[in-house]
Amino acid sequence: MKTLEVFDPAMCCSTGVCGVDVDPALAQFAADLKWVEEKGVKVSRHNLGQEPQAFAANPAIVKEMEAGMERLPLIVIDGHIVVTGMYPSRQQLAQKLGISLTVTEMPPVKAASCCTPKSGCC
Amino acid sequence: MSLPELKTRHAFFTGKGGVGKTSLSCATGLALAEAGKRVLIVSTDPASNLDEVLGMALSQSPTAIPGANNLFALNIDPVAAAHDYRERMVAPYRGILPTAAIQSMEEQFSGACTVEIAAFDEFSKLLGDPAATQDFDHVIFDTAPTGHTLRLLTLPSAWDEFIASSTGGASCLGPLAGLEKQKALYAATVKRLADPDETTVILVSRPDVSALREAERTRAELAGLGVRNIQLAINGLFKAATPGDIIADAMTNRAIEALATMPTTLAELPGTSIPFLPRGTVGLDALRVMARPETATKSSANMTAANIALPSGLRVMIDDIAKAKHGVIMTMGKGGVGKTTIAAAIAIALAERGNKVVLSTTDPAAHVSAAVAEGIKGLSVTRIDPTLEVRQYTEEILRKTGDKLDAAGRAVLEEDLRSPCTEEIAVFRAFARTVDQGNDGFVVLDTAPTGHTILLLDAAEAYHREVMRTQGDMPESVRQLLPRLRDKAFTSVLIVVLPEATPVHEAERLQQDLARAGIEPYGWVINQSLLASGTHDPLLCERGNYEVPFIRRVVDTLATRSALIPWFAVPPVGSGGLAQIAG
Question: Do A12 and B470 make contact, defined as CB atoms within 8 angstroms?
Fold first, then answer.
């Protein structure tokens, strides 16, 4: 079974409703993770503010944070960092996990655009 | 006339700020301790004066009170509790995670939500866990001012429901990582509160209409929470020994009328009353007098008011503030000192000078509209209503982001918006929006009681840092808030006090807190002075003379500008009554 781990920056909650302004990409990402889980992927999510032990226990993650806090969030699939500094869209998640996406499963708008500078995506 | 009688192990004293909850809970606890019971008094008020009333520095664990066998007290300071909580979470990772990671964790634990949750956590340990207080026969809670108390009391059921209904793994449980584990404790807390054999709630009120109205509101809320064992305690009941003095007669009649017109639901509660005590209620001796008022030394019949130079009225300050033609005026201070009344009087006086004025309140126990009964040209009254703000904020977020989400994403977002943190944010944004109106007119805010106000300012600070970091589409009003509050040309902060020990000392702490936030008050307003009232009643003259050192302290040491407002025979209600204050 594939595993997907998300290392979030310190935030009150995973949709950002507790922050200054709500980021719809965060709510969509939380929903996309549920969808990924339904496809049989083992998903775990760690928030720096709540589960720092998960970060401390993983030298690769600590190394990324030393390079800069903007490297968070980090998306790890089967132990390999595949995305840094952004939340991937459902299509990107599907592609990286090798899940085929039907038309009805497409979200209405892409959660975040791919290939922005420094995004580390693609 | 006597103290409330306690048959249950737990007791809560609640009521509008300044009605004497702390004094009464201490006097009741002291009387029980002197009757041979082991008693613990607990304060959960962020602006607690328990230390002062008991004459002893307290901590977050039970401290024996010297001079009173079997009496112990502790203070739950939410800010300190939040600090401890933050340290417990962060300290183990210093040196293990990069410095920047530690900083971002610390920031995450600096918000108002953490403070609220950490305080509630401490409170739950005491009420929900029998082992924590097993050494005591009675545990007496001197709860925070009403709005905050109610939030504290409502939270258990809200959280309980929230935890139960939260389905996805992505639910917003705020910064309290172990919340789920605490569920049993919180459920036990709720159960204890509502159990009439375990808990008595004592509504404390002054014999005046607004305090009684507040008591009735609290009674209804408590009944809604399933609390049935409620008593009413009327504190500071005055009756002129001999009629003929305008002030003494007005005070006597105001109490009689207020008690005669109180709602029947309040009148039907088992109740007691405690007489007016001219020498304050600070220290064990004063607390013993509260328990046995007949032992009080009688005021000498030829007692007269001291003849000292007093500060001027509010008019000088209003004339000065009016020169700017626009800006924000905030009245701050402990609950019950008259912030709303002073704010309303200033708003009316500014409007009468031809200015455009908005009078706004963030006080959860708001009755500004009752204070300003009649319409006045140029003046509008608004209220920051948390329920309404939360609804509007939620709708706005869903409207703004809804089309970017599919059904599942929307469901996750809606669930998270039900979290208790949403209220803090919604109210904060409303506050910033109101301050923003000070650009093209005057905005007069009667801010919430001290503790809540500080949380709000704390939130302002945390937000300020966050705003600087994110590039989200932050409202400009929020971005500008803290710089505006610090700008003396834009914002005039008035600290309102009563000429008594506790209000003055608390206001002194407030001034220090404001200084830390970079805010310097414009001036101090000393309200309801009996010394300045012109009374000749011996008991009231004695009380007036008791005010002298506190007035001196404000004028000589604390304030850059000060104003003194007498106790008026005509109540300061409606534009006529309020005009006396601005005079």
Answer: no
